[in-house]
Records
---
Amino acid sequence: MRRPDWAPDDIDIERPSVARMYDYYLGGSHNFAVDRAAAQAMVAAVPEAPLMAQANRAFLRRAAHFLVDAGVRQFLDIGSGIPTVGNVHEIVQQVAPSSRVVYVDTDPVAVAHSQEILADNNQATVVQEDLRHPDRILSHPELRRLLDLNEPTAVLIVAVLHFVSDDDRPAELLRTLREALAPGSWLVLSQASDEGRRDTERSDAEAVYQRTGSPLWFRDRSELTTLFDGFELVEPGVVWVPQWRPETPESSVNAEASAFLGGVGRIGG
Amino acid sequence: MATFTQEWANAITGTSYLPMTQAQLKRLLDRLARQLAAALLAEPFDLRAGQRVGAELVAAHIASAEALGRTVEVVQLRLVRDLGLVAEDVADRLARLLAAVTTGYARALRDRTLDEQETIRRAAMAQRTKAERALRASEARFRHQATHDSLTDLPNRNLFTERLTAALKAPQRDTDRVGLCFLDLDGFKRVNDQHGHQAGDRVLTEVANRLRQALTGHLVARLGGDAFVILIERTGGTRDVIAVAEAALAAVHKPAEVAGREVTVRTSIGIVERQVAGATANELMRAADCTLHWAKAAGGGRWMLYDAERDRRELTSQALTAAIPAGLDRGEFYLDYQPLASLRDGRVLGVEALVRWRHPELGVLRPGQFIGLAEETGLIIPLGGWVLAEACRAAGSWSTTAGTPFVSVNLAVRQVHRPGLVQEVRSILRHTGLPPERLQLEITESAMMSPAEEPVRALRHLADLGVRIAIDDFGTGYSNLAYLRDLPVTELKVAGEFVAGLRAQEPQADERIVASLVSLAHALNLTVTAEGVETAGQAERLRAIGCDAGQGWHFGRPEPADRILARLG
């Protein structure tokens, strides 16, 4: 029998969660032994894994600053994970307190944690949904309550797309999102790439994430660029994330070690 | 100061994620460096300043083991030198200050770690509670879906059977009684056919709502289609269940609006009510279902009460009907013959063939016990065919002298209406060598009631062959005289009930009826045989009236042909 849509998710915290592993890479303690064991296995395979996560998080911070400076006041962060430090709402509401942020994650514990963090913030909310169901995200009453999609909105999909395989048709998912957005809206993407990586590193990393139930799907620069279809990429285009508008010249040295490609695009008009 | 701050910033960058810009980081470190410098020179020396710096670093998310290590290293190596601090015991003070920084840092980091562990555990717990609640809700929903009808949301057959079985299995007292009302809408198919299935579904929903409202306290379930059932537990007797059935009828028998038009809704109800002890769910359901069919057959729009005696009779009949084909195969049927005697001289004119069934378990059965069923089910065709063939075969073997009696065989309505009757009779006559004039076919008035022309034509054919045609039980049907004019009838058989009223002395209505029938028949050139003649007195009256022949116990009971033939000599 097919599992009906309204049937609840499995309760499974015995399995490592990519959201809590990411928290561990960033130096947080919002994780359990099972997550730390998986994260440590990842560090053994790819020693700079924590630096990759930090580089991504820093990219997210710079992109959020860039967008709020560009006048964007609505943010949809899909795959937000465990909101450790430096969340989108912290960054943008500090600059523009009227900014509204909707977080989306598929991990129920991450969502429960976000709900606690956001309990007192009526300008930010969290929705439990999967990037693979953009229609459900867009029609979710919480999103509709907080965001007016007739106004420019920034969609952030940072360090998540490598959990979406080509079988899940990422281009279609992004098109669905784009078509719901007003002109002047933005898309921020970053994802893991195996460009220049050794095969053993790649296969070891894949083995770790296979255990989490969220297997990795690497993409190269041209593949990621294609996913910006319908958006105009702003300078410097799709690059290693430390190279995206670095604060200091030296912070983008050895950028390919981050193993993450990212970019920011805008819908014209 | 700027050199030191830059060195410090460089040292800790990359140790963990820092949620701030480089400029913000430098501003923070600059402030902390100043606090450390001030502490080194302050009088009196205050270690708490060092602890505060450690705590501030953690609060600013500079919170990793590496960050602490590098901070200690940079401060130790560069703070005094870069800032040109001069004091007598500066090396000593620096060591103690760094110890205070690490203490404050470790304390703050520990607290922070514990806090974060607590929040994530709380989140996991909240999630688990939520998921468990959702699971319970979905289980309840699964259960509801499995036990309820999706159209009307009434309990479905599963739940009903469950509840009925439970009521039967665990009665509260030995004397507990239980009742069922089986409902089936009358003519519901017409609603579907005329207004479409959507309209039909609306009627069903409406009926379900009415029953639900009218019968609170009793389980009302939908069994499927337009069939519903009500379970009445702990009844005080039949009367309680009848009251429920009455309420159900009243609730259902109201017009419903379908597609803007009013549609009459009617239902039939079969009721069964009995002691719980010894009852099974299947048995009760079957009894209620069977009673429902009685209510339908009686015209619908009513309830009927289960009648065990009737059920038994019908069950026996059904079993008997089902056994007819095998009985024919196994040669369980045989014929007896009853004489038709001339009232003028007592001569045996003919014999009527009467079928018997030597049933392996029930013994010898008379036609009244199985012919009606055979007629209903169509089995009369093979059975009647066998009787005709067997009677002709027997009669064909009798001597062919002038006095030999004819054989009279009953034809059922279905046989008369069946195409190929003429063919069948002709072929039997040919095979048995029986002269056609020694065969009489008895048909009932009702066989002639249909407007179809085929049977009339067939009978004419048979009459043309020389076969005698008699109307059986004349006077009890519609006694339509018109067909007597059109049909090639040779004889009327007057029903025994008129004969029973004949008495020797005083002429009654019956006698006058028989007398006028006889004169009518004679006027039409037909002979008359009176059936059911039991006494010499009756025979005497009939002779006086002018009736031609008689049949009945007075002239001889049904018996094997050879005995009759033996008496004829």
---
Amino acid sequence: MSFLRDALLVAGKDLRIERRSRVALQQIIPFGGVVVMLFAFALDSDRTLLHQAAPGLFWAAVLLAVLLAIGRSFSIEEANRARDGLRLSGLDGGSIFLGKAAAIAVELFLLEIVVGAVVVVLYDISIRGVVVLLCAAVAATVGLAATGTVYGVLAGGLRARETLVPLLVLPAVTPVMLGATRSFQAALDGRPGDAWPWVQLLTAFAVLAVTAGTVAFGPLLEEA
Amino acid sequence: MLGRFPALAGADLEVETGEVLLLSGPNGAGKTTLLRLCAGLLPLRAGTAEVLGVDLAVEPKRVRRAVALVGHETFCYDDLTVAENVRFVARSTGHSTADADAALDRVGLQRVAQVAHGRLSQGQRRRLSLANAIARRPRLLLLDEPHAGLDEQGRAVLEEVVRAAPADGCTVMLASHELDLARRLATREVRIVAGRVHAAPVVPAPGSTPTVPPTPTAAEIEART
């Protein structure tokens, strides 16, 4: 229980900071919206292509916003050497990982709601297969948040972390991009049966990322 | 290590429970490194270190739970208030919010409890660091230049905290360049030069100045390293 309590403590701290600073609300979420709007302007002349590409463009926008969320999550630990404060607390590395990943996941869910609404309106998308869409979104978000948190702490202490995090994270989350796009595509096309295998892939990735992160985060926090 | 050079070499030091040990020495001598090492924040590259009876190389996390470090940085979050920062420290170390509030009271920061850390003055930040340390109820209190940035009232609070520490079974190690102030608190002083501890076990009488080894010349430092 204390493991989960500590994770909640860290998640609560990160979310309180985000609520107070409004970086997620005023910068990261609008950034996601701007990206899908730019795609809409770029492909506006071909509505069919825009419609077909909507799932991929949506997840590309989420993926780019994830990089900002990860950077933000670890930049607050660098100011005033708060990272050393976390180390001194004696909190288990796994619980810190779960807390930070959960806070990023909550921010991503909010982002996906806003960006999803923009996509539906601008790209003229009809929502179908809500259950599959929700399951895929939850699994993909957990996978993205967990993977991002691992690489975030890995690059956290480095001067080049702003450029290093995208280089590390983007290739690592390729399965998420693939699975989320394909499952959304199938669900929106009215073929939910074709979406479930991709949801399973996303779930397996999320479980693996959370497990690996829980084990590896502590040592990475020490070494970074 | 500082580049290719060891930050501490041949540092041999034993501190008794309840002591208030002053670490003096020139800039870059290794005082901060020694304090961070004792806090479990730096890995031990060679030699052995036991803090509060725990082998630092084997169980650094156990050491961290029992120590508090007031360093050059506050380890706080700019967007959290003073109260939120101290409560986070207290709760993350297994203590209550009541402990946190009591610590804030003790350092005189209740008036700014709802102010964000990012808006505090330098002196208030130092007091907040002290409050964070108190809220942890440490058995070893590590103070790195604790007088820096503190006003008269802040220094009085610091002195009260350090003087009360031994009665609570807490040992104190403090590194300072403000030797007149620090020597009023210390029960023993050692001098660190070029990463080596020059022990001078002196118990100063109230009002007296303890005897410390003279600062070595550059040639002497060169010869030792």
